């Protein structure tokens, strides 16, 4: 099949890119390996998840949220919004298509995308002038290699598989990772009566969603350094010194840290109070080794657990199928060009949703990619 643009991935960034291209009447096809759009939100999100960012930072092009929508949406509300977006703009992704390889054919200056239809088992070949990678930052769940992990006698899962603490009542559960997922899963486990411990290796800023909302609004008008100073001061006033509880604050400000490292500040849902009250135990450092259900930590502490939840992030899977990834990506599957032109590669290869700026970043990328493709096609037509 031939088309002008192939988009790989039907998450928010992929859907937005298709809509923006359609606004310019540019033919495009979305290939999605799952049987639904936005599978991360529909299949790999825990039950209690709520969006930590205000609704104006969680919307896609040409369809802002209405006044009736609360400032901070539940997962269900956001999923409904995405489904309404697909319906309103009549987006028709080709589901159950797992892309096996994508290469640039120098002989005709086109991209050759090979996909498997996982329903029929057939191999499909797509040719396009432009290719957009929109599989997102959250590819494959990352579970680090730990000595003896194969001997663990309990349950091991990645945070993307976690749904609820309902089945963990009275069990000793270790959550590995002190980011937003790890902190919120710990809170959920504790609420369901699990004996919860969280393992935190690196310092993280802890703030409220209201403070982050204020900070993100100010960033439109005020330099990052000034916003960081304000947000950090407010966090100190709200929480005080949390280091005695094992929660350490980075020297770099929360928004600068997010910008340069991709690590977002932790938006507290009530976890800090439970840590203060001793309901959730904090261990700093990493896991040294595992022997059966006994874990030995790097600080020498030993403790038995019935389950481990790894909230240790994701690995990009882009380089597994994008053979000519070096035109836009580094080996780690993230853009090689710095912002704000991170989305544009060589040979008409683009990426959307890799800016580490969440839904808003994916929406911005989608508009930039579509505008750039429109400009290139207009130039070719005039020549």
TrEMBL record:
Cofactor list: FAD
Family, per entry? Belongs to the FMO family.
Single GO molecular function: flavin adenine dinucleotide binding
Q: Which domain of life is it from?
A: Eukaryota
**UniProt source species:** Arabidopsis suecica
Would I find Oxidoreductase among this entry's keywords?
A: yes
This protein's name: FAD/NAD(P)-binding domain superfamily
Keywords noted in UniProt: FAD, Flavoprotein, Monooxygenase, NADP, Oxidoreductase
